[in-house]
Amino acid sequence: MSLKDLNISDISYFVLNNEVNRPVDNQIPLNKDKEALKAFFHENVIPNVKQFNNLKEKLDFLIEHDYIEAEFLEQYSQDFLENLHKRMEDANFRFKSFMAAYKFYNQYALKTNDGAYYLETFIDRVFFNALYYANGDEKLAEALADEMVSQRYQPATPSFLNAGKKRRGEFVSCFLIQMTDDMNSIGRGINSALQLSRIGGGVGIALSNLRESGAPIKGIEGASSGVIPVMKLLEDSFSYSNQLGQRQGAGAVYLNVFHPDIIQFLSAKKENADEKIRVKTLSLGVVVPDKYYELVRTNQDMYLFSPYDVERIYGEPFSYVDITKEYDNMVQNDEIRKYKIKARELENEISKLQQESGYPYILNVDTANRENPVDGKIIMSNLCSEIQQVQTPAILNDKQEFDQMGTDISCNLGSTNIGNLMTSPDFGKSVKTMTRALTFISDTSNIEAVPTVAKGNQLSHSIGLGAMGLHSFLAKEHIHYGSKEALEFVDTYFMLLNYWTLAESNQIARERKQTFHDFEKSTYATGEYFDKYLTQSFAPKSDRVKQLFDGIMIPSQQDWQDLKEAIQQDGLYNAYRLAIAPTGSISYINDTSASLHPITRLIEERTEKKNGKLYFPAPHLDNETIKYYTSAYDTDMRKVIDTYAVAQQHIDQGMSLTLFLRSTIPEGLYEWKEEEEQTTRDLSILRNYAYYKGIKSIYYVRTFTDDSQEVGSNECESCSI
Description:
With 721 residues, the protein is of the alpha/beta class. It has a domain at 174-409: Anaerobic Ribonucleotide-triphosphate Reductase Large Chain (Alpha-Beta Barrel), CATH 3.20.70.20. 41% of the residues lie in helices and 11% in strands. The chain contains 28 helices and 19 strands. Strands 11-2-3-4-5-8-17 form a seven-stranded mixed beta sheet. α9 packs parallel to α10 and α21 runs parallel beside α27. The longest helix is centred in the C-terminal third of the chain and has 29 residues, at 484-512. The radius of gyration is 25 Å and the shape is globular. It starts with 12 loop residues before the first helix and ends in a 10-residue tail after the last strand.
C-alpha cells in the first residue's frame, strides 16, 4: 500500500495523537503520543519507504531519476559516503514525538514524483545537507553531520528542504529590497518582488521613500496616489507569484511612522477597510525613530514630512535622513511640506490594529542603528523582523537600468537547539561548524534576477545563526522562565554564540584573505565593538548557572582581547552573523519549544489542512517539569522582553519578538490594570517598555480571545527556521 492509497480508516496515529488532549483522571496521557509515534512508523513510514540493497544503489537511483544532484556527491569517494552514512546511522537518532516525525515526513522528506513513496529518512536528509554544505571538505562534512543528526544545529527550512535536490528552490529564507521615489524604481521593485517570491523567499519592501498621497508630481498638485496603490500591486504580485501554487506568496511592507500616509497605511489592514485600499495578505511593518517615543511620552503634536521635499532638501532618500536628529529643523523648514497629528492618537491607532490583526511589526530603527557595528544605515527589516542590515539606494534610468547599483539583502538562516547544544562535547567547535555551513549558503547564493540583492550578498557574506528551545531547556533544568537564573543563562549563552561566530568569521577571513566590504569602517576594525566585553564579564555568577555551563569554555576578558586583536589584524568575513528568527514547523522536528519565547500551551494544538487538529505536548513535560511551564498568554510580557533584551546585547541583528496577551488579562498580571479587559494602553505600555529595554523590533502581537481563538497567529513559513 502506497502513501496515496492510505485510508484514514486504516490508520490509528491521528486518533492516538488526539487522545493526548483528553485528560484521564486529571492527568495528561502522554503515553498516547508515544503510541501515536510508534503507530505512525508502523502504519505510514516503514511500509512506504522505498527499499534499496545498499547506499550506492540508492544514490545511483536518486541521481538517475533526477531527484538528487550528482555534482556535490562526486566530490567525495564512495568509501567516505558509506562511512559517513554508517556513522550517522550509529548515532541512533529517534524522533521523540508524533508531531516531530509527522512534520518531517509530511513536509521535508523527499518523495517519488507521484507522491506514493518516501525516498529518504531523516538520516538521509541530514546526510545530503552535510555533504552539500561541506562542498567536498570531508572533515567539515563529518562535523556537520554530527551537529545535525544530534539536532544541535538546524538549517532554515529552505536550506534543509532543498540541499542536494536536483529540482529545488533557493536556500535563502527571505529578502529585503527598497523603492525610491520614482516610477522606474517602483516598476523595478514590483518585478523584483515577483522574481523573489517565485524562487522561494518571503520579501520585505521599504516604501518610506515614496511621496505621499496628494503630493505634487512635476508641479501638478494632488497628482500622487501615495503608497496604498503600490501596496495593492505588491499584494497581487505575491498572490500571482506563488511557486506554482505551492504556497501563498509572502510579503511585508515597511513605512516610516513620520510618513504622511501612515494612517492610511495602517487602515489598509483593518477588517472594515474599503476594498479599494484593504490589503488582506500583505504584512505591515512600521519604522519608528526615537523621536516618536519622545513625542508620545510628552503628549505633543507630531509632524509628518513629505518624502519628496525631504529628499529635495537633504539630497538623499527619506529613509536615510536621521529624523530624530533633524526633526526640529524639518519642522522649522518652510520648504518641507508637513502634516500635523497627535502623537498619542497615532499610538492608539497602532495599538488598536495590533489588537485586531497582530500588525504592524515595529522596527525601532534608531536603536538598530546605534547598535549596528557595520558602516551604513539600517532602514527596514524583513518578513519576520529579525534581519537588520545596512542597505544603499539604487539610481535607475528610464530603461530601468542601474546608473548606480544599490545593495539589498538576502537572509541565510539557521538555528541552534539550545538544549542539545548545551550537551555538545565541544560547544565552540559546534558553533564554528554552523558558521561554516551558513557561510556556504551565502557564498553560493547568486540572485541574478535582482542584482541589488546579489550585490549586497556578495559584499557582506551575511548570515544569521539563531536559537530555539529556551523554554523547554529551562523547564528541563527546573528553572522558571524570566527568572534571575534564566536571564543569567541567556546572557552567557548568547555571549558564547557571539564569541565563537566572531572567531570563525575571523578564521575564514584569514584563510581567504578577504573581509566583508568596508570592514575597515566598522566598529570591529576600530575596536569599539569589544569595549563591553573588555570591561565586564558575562560568565555565569550563580552556582546554579555555573553548573549548567560546567565543562564549557567561558572566554575571559583576555580571550576577548586576543580576539579583538586578531579581528583588527585579519578582519571578519561575515558582516552580520546572528539573528533570532521564529521557528515554525522545524521546532517540532527538533522536539523543542519555539525560539526564545514561552510555550503557548502544555498541549499545543495545530490545525493541519487535510487532517484536522494535531497535538504537540511540551517537550520534557512530566510531573516534575509541569510547574515550570506557564503559557505565554499567562506570562508577564515584561519577562519575555527582559529575556530578549539580555540576548539582544550580544546579537548584531535583531530578533522576532512576539508579544502574547489574552483579550481578558488575568487579574494581577500587570500592576497598572484596573480592569481585566485588554486595552490599547496595555500594548502601548509594553511597546514602550520594549523600546526602553533596547529591543530593536517587535514581530506579531498575538491575542488569545475569550472564545479560544488566536488573533495575529499567522506563521511566516518562508522566513521561519
